[in-house]
Write a structure and sequence with these properties.
alpha/beta; Nucleotidyltransferase, domain 5; 5-stranded mixed β-sheet; 7 helices; 17% strand
Length: 210
């Protein structure tokens, strides 16, 4: 009941009713895996520089349905930032305005659950834009692959450390490296993680949170 009231309240905040489709029941077995490259790690003050995403349907990554866009920042990116995300000013010459990128992303995602690595950060920074443009945070459910991986690890005690770094999970799952700090490649690699982990934990694949 509370969830229904919360959904109704969020719908009432929409600036454009055409985005009510974001609250519809998703088709079972369909997901979107996404990744953002950003100017920093603070969703409140930092900006998105690129977004990569792919559709997942049942047990496969649908490569013909992919999303890859560079986003124009409001100010010049600094050298220290470039060392982290490796996106150069030349890469942003044909970047699109944030509003265009976000509207295109919403169409691509639809009402599908969103898969990602530390996905709460990506959703938080995307929500900064969606709140501005359509009046609400991104409402889609999310699935965290690092949580899925954690649940597959056998621990000798409750205090045992589990390494959840992206590279570690990749290595443990024998996922091929496609190229780092590229939003689309990261999304594809994370999608491969998800599918492999879902096979390892078939009863524990719905880690949905609002």
């Amino acid at each position: 009941m509370f969830k229904n009231l919360y959904t109704k309240w969020k719908k009432s905040k929409l600036k454009d009713k055409k985005y009510e489709y974001l609250f519809e029941e998703p088709v079972k077995g369909e997901y979107v895996c996404l990744d953002c490259e950003t100017t920093g790690l603070n969703p409140r003050k930092d900006e998105i520089l690129s977004i990569g995403a792919v559709h997942i349907k049942d047990n496969r990554i649908v490569m013909r349905k992919r999303f890859n866009v560079f986003v124009k920042p409001s100010k010049k990116i600094d050298a220290e930032s470039i060392k982290i995300h490796r996106i150069r000013p030349i890469d942003l010459e044909n970047a699109v305005r944030p509003k265009v990128a976000i509207f295109e992303l919403l169409e691509f995602i639809g009402n599908k659950p969103i898969v990602g690595y530390y996905i709460k950060f990506d959703i938080a920074i995307i929500s900064k834009y969606t709140k501005k443009y359509i009046g609400i945070d991104l409402p889609n459910e999310s699935i965290e692959v690092s949580s899925m991986y954690y649940k597959t690890r056998k621990k000798t005690s409750e205090y045992e450390f589990i390494d959840l770094k992206f590279d570690t999970i990749m290595k443990e799952l024998d996922i091929p490296v496609l190229g780092k700090h590229d939003a689309l490649n990261d999304a594809i690699m994370t999608a491969m993680m998800f599918l492999k982990l879902r096979d390892l934990t078939p009863a524990k694949t719905t880690f949905y949170t609002n």
